[in-house]
């Protein structure tokens, strides 16, 4: 064995990505060690993998010639460890050679590749793509650059070019997975948008969105932060990350369209939102009535409540005399707009799947800044934190089979037909065996967080709706994330049991009042896909970012992108020993990793 | 007007309760001021009220003669303010005089009395009581003392007599409401219990509880804190508060029986619990198999997962080769035992309602100390906090129509028949009127925390499932608390719509590792019904308790009861001006108030 350190960069795209790698080089030893497999694939396999996968998914990209590597000896499944992919069920599909190559990659990175999912989308291959595969528009990559970045072995870290600038000089960096899927299934979007007044009145809004996207220029420079509502409309800033699974179609589509759904929802409430002096009217077009209401004279008794407005039991009740009226804040309208935007986005994917090939699903983490507040909408297992004076403020929570267990079990209990007679809504610590019928086994129901023993019966032999722990937890033995967009035709393998009813497209929205605080140059919001957070804690991220920024020139507008690059590097690690390694010899992330670092001080002034 | 200060005490029970009151005495002024009404009722009304209510509820108590007061002029409902009762729908029922008396009381205390609910229990009056009404057993009150304590005007604070002592010298104090219900619907229990081994084996447990209650003696003294599992069994300490509504039956029953359900559930896992050296076996009676499992070789792919044990799609799959097994901690078994104990208690109430009169429902807050940990199980809107070194550690969260809105709406959406065609699962800021059909009104669905506008349609004219804000929020226009025991026959007024499906008897259980910390004499756990927390914040309670205890002799074993009395006094306030007033001229609580103060230093040593 010999050790060698390489400086890796791409001659065709100098400055775009480069990094150092220390590699131990082994001789062939009978059973091919994973690192040698990777070296082989690195030479010619990545392009081959991509070519194969493109053919299936319909992704158009220039093909690179190259013969596949000698297939390495297949390894027993028991050797598979580490993170499994969210769409891992497809790992068995595909050609034999392809599978084996993937298997080797998987052995190396501790992950499972998601495949083309042709079985789930029987007709999808015949349909045109809704959008071609791409990397985030703001990176401004050519097709060749996109292809070069998708090297599962080198895993180059892509950053924003120095000539490009995002709103608020937001920093961005990303890296592809180590073989889990052929393409990087993360997607990102960062724009400044304007919600314009509709031509019609507010109470009879036109359904035609008239938003104007102001940052559709590849280079975001020159954008000025205007008054919240100028003659053009309401300006808002938007950052979003999407983590795709079982295909990149939903993630690409959501990264292109979700912001327009947000615009459309905000348009519905534009007039109300911009009239901060008055609380949003309960009913549009009857502000006159609203004025006559007696505030705080509310339901003090159920009887007055019920008598108030023809409530049940009093169908011919007189007009209301006393009733309460909940006061809704403007902030709640923005939250509602984001919630409904996610819903509309999901509905659009479902609708357009009838005519387009839109593969897979994706998580979505979208952040909007408007009217002085940051709104963080999260559906999935990405995460956003604010780092203020070095302290962490969590701005999202993750939605996983474990965190949503009780909701999912409750649904399975209420609608047992969704389980297709093959799953049980009860949770057991492991699979129940037939010989255990009649014995007492630990279980928990949707009402429980603790565990108790129950006598096993025949129906308990069904597979548990929620099964596995941590990153390996699955819903219906299929999916490891419980909120997001797409996945409409995802089914349990070899069955007609749909996953979608258990998934939710509804985000949780948290609000941060940006104008309430003074922010320094090192106060930032960090958004990352789960690839980042799987290996770094909030505190590790905060420490890394804070110490990195402290060593930067405060006037360097590229510092946030450099900090994002540093973060991705820390999460991916370097290729050493038997895989990607990070601090303290821990395993780096083999997943796609995408990171935005948004400086907060620009909420109130122009960078 | 003249002002007078009275020292109030009860001659028949010296030392049991006494307090000072400053009263402004008015002349009759046409519209009778509430304070005069109260003075009248105080003279003879409380007994009259009680007599009337006893006749309906079947509570047996010695009757006190006395004629009802002159009915005060009825006040417009608009003047009703403050807290409304949980079972407020019954306020309209009952005789005219009775209603008017109650109305006056209500005007005074800002609450609504819960009535006898004869309509809900058509046959209940013919059935025997499951348990007679009482105050907590450990108070050791005679029937006369119970009656004297139920003075809605004087509102004497009942405390533990000096000759009595609870485990850990726990402090206790309570006060009756200011007219909301005829009797104090709060109940309490504090005991030391022993879970004994069943005669049979663990895998075939006998269903006969063999627990021995060790503190059934009126005087808890002499109890020794033994080894966790001595020859007798597993000793545990138990404190519980129950806040009844719409009758006292469920609260009284739960205060007598819940602890035995806990014992029975713990019996199921006794052997496992006391074997701390080994994690609880997944399946009882097959520890041998358990040993052969390969740990941490788990589902890395859905395929191996599904193939593992005859999962869907592979009915004839071979025996499992690779599967994960979740490791369950002992702590989770205690949590599960508490969760199932609540469920069994609720089931028993439902079952026995067939033959007994068990009126109303109740919240339940139960705390168990065993094996070095405090387990706080809460179903309802009572609250427990730990005060350690003056800092507050919340040990429960409240379950209300607002905090459980999304769960309730989701259920209404999934099972619309539960809404009887009269309610909508959507929430609106106020009642929708027919003339608003076609207009756009604010709403939110079960998926939303924000609000958006929707075009009102005919079905939106139905009454909202959740309606009202804060203490006035109601489920199905009927009940203001969403978890607890009982309420099986509670229906929406004049309808066949049952409330119970929307209520949950499942507690949330939080754990505090008592042995992990050193506790001083002023470190305590405070349990209180909502009457306490409605008017005092966690911090106010912590400040009050901490400063009170600091001024006590540390060796005075009565100090925790004195602190509890102080707390109840602070929450009830004193009778002044137009009602019960506390600090800063705020309104005191007109609700029943019950408080335990549990010193934590006795977890590891005998008081």
From TrEMBL, chains A, B:
Q: Where is this region: Disordered?
A: 55-94, 200-223
Q: Which SMART domains match?
A: PP2Cc
Q: Which InterPro entries match?
A: PP2C (IPR015655), PPM-type-like_dom_sf (IPR036457), PPM-type_phosphatase-like_dom (IPR001932)
Do you know which SUPFAM superfamilies this protein is assigned to? PP2C-like (SSF81606)
For this UniProt entry, the molecular function terms from Gene Ontology, in alphabetical order, are: [pyruvate dehydrogenase (acetyl-transferring)]-phosphatase activity
Task: Give the Polar residues compositional bias ranges.
Answer: 200-209
Pfam families named in the record = PP2C (PF00481)
Instruction: List each copy of the PPM-type phosphatase domain by range.
Output: 198-600
For this record, the Gene Ontology CC terms, alphabetical, are: mitochondrion
Q: Which PANTHER family match?
A: PROTEIN PHOSPHATASE 1H (PTHR13832:SF838), PROTEIN PHOSPHATASE 2C (PTHR13832)
Q: What is this protein called?
A: PPM-type phosphatase domain-containing protein
Source organism of the structure: Denticeps clupeoides
């Amino acid at each position: 064995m010999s050790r060698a350190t390489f400086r890796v960069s791409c001659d065709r795209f100098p400055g775009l990505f480069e990094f150092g790698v220390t590699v131990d080089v082994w001789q062939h030893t009978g059973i091919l060690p994973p690192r040698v497999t990777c070296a082989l694939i690195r030479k010619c396999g990545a392009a081959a993998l991509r070519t194969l996968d493109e053919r299936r998914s319909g992704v158009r990209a220039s093909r690179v010639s190259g013969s596949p590597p000698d297939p390495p000896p297949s390894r027993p499944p028991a050797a598979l460890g580490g993170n499994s992919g969210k769409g891992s069920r497809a790992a068995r599909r595909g050609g034999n050679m392809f599978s084996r190559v993937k298997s080797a990659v998987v052995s190396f990175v501790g992950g499972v590749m998601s495949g083309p999912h042709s079985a789930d989308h029987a007709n999808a291959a015949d349909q045109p793509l809704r959008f071609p595969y791409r990397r985030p528009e703001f990176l401004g990559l050519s097709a060749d650059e996109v292809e070069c970045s998708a090297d599962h072995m080198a895993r180059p870290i892509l950053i924003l070019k120095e000539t490009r600038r995002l709103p608020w000089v937001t920093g961005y960096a990303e890296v592809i997975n180590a073989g889990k899927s052929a393409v990087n299934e993360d997607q990102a979007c960062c724009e400044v948008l304007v919600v314009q007044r509709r031509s019609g009145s507010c109470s009879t809004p036109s359904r035609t969105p008239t938003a104007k996207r102001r940052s559709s220029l590849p280079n975001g420079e020159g954008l000025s932060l205007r008054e919240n509502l100028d003659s053009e409309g309401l300006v808002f800033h938007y950052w979003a990350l999407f983590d795709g699974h079982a295909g990149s179609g939903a993630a690409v589509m959501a990264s292109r369209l979700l912001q327009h759904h947000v615009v459309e929802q905000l348009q519905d409430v534009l007039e109300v939102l911009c009239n901060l002096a008055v609380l949003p009217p309960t009913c549009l077009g009857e502000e006159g009535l609203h004025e006559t209401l007696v505030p705080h004279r509310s339901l003090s008794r159920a009887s007055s409540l019920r008598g108030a407005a023809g409530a049940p039991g009093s169908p011919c009740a007189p007009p209301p005399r006393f009733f309460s009226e909940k006061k809704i804040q403007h902030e709640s309208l923005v939250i509602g707009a984001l919630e409904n935007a996610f819903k509309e986005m999901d509905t659009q994917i479902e609708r357009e799947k009838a005519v387009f090939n839109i593969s897979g699903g994706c998580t979505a983490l979208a952040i909007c800044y408007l009217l002085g507040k940051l709104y963080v909408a999260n559906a999935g297992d990405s995460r956003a934190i604010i780092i203020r004076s070095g302290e962490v403020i969590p701005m999202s929570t993750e939605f996983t089979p474990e965190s949503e267990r009780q909701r999912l079990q409750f649904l399975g209990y209420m609608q047992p037909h969704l389980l297709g007679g093959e799953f049980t809504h009860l949770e057991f610590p492991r699979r129940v065996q037939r010989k255990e019928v009649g014995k007492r086994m630990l279980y928990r129901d949707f009402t429980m967080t603790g565990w108790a023993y129950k006598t096993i019966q025949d129906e308990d032999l069904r597979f548990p709706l929620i099964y596995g722990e941590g990153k390996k937890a699955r819903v219906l033995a299929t999916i490891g994330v419980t909120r997001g967009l797409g996945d409409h035709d995802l089914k349990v393998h070899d069955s007609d049991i749909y996953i979608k009813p258990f998934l939710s497209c509804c985000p949780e929205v948290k609000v941060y009042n940006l104008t309430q605080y003074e922010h320094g140059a090192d106060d930032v919001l960090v958004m990352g896909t789960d690839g980042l957070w799987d290996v770094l804690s909030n505190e590790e991220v905060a420490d890394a970012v804070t110490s990195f920024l402290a060593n930067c020139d405060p006037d360097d507008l590229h510092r946030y992108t450099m900090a994002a690059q540093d973060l991705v590097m820390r999460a991916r690690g370097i290729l050493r020993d038997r895989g990607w390694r990070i601090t303290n010899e821990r395993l780096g992330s083999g997943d796609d990793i995408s990171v935005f670092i948004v400086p907060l001080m620009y909420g109130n002034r122009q960078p």
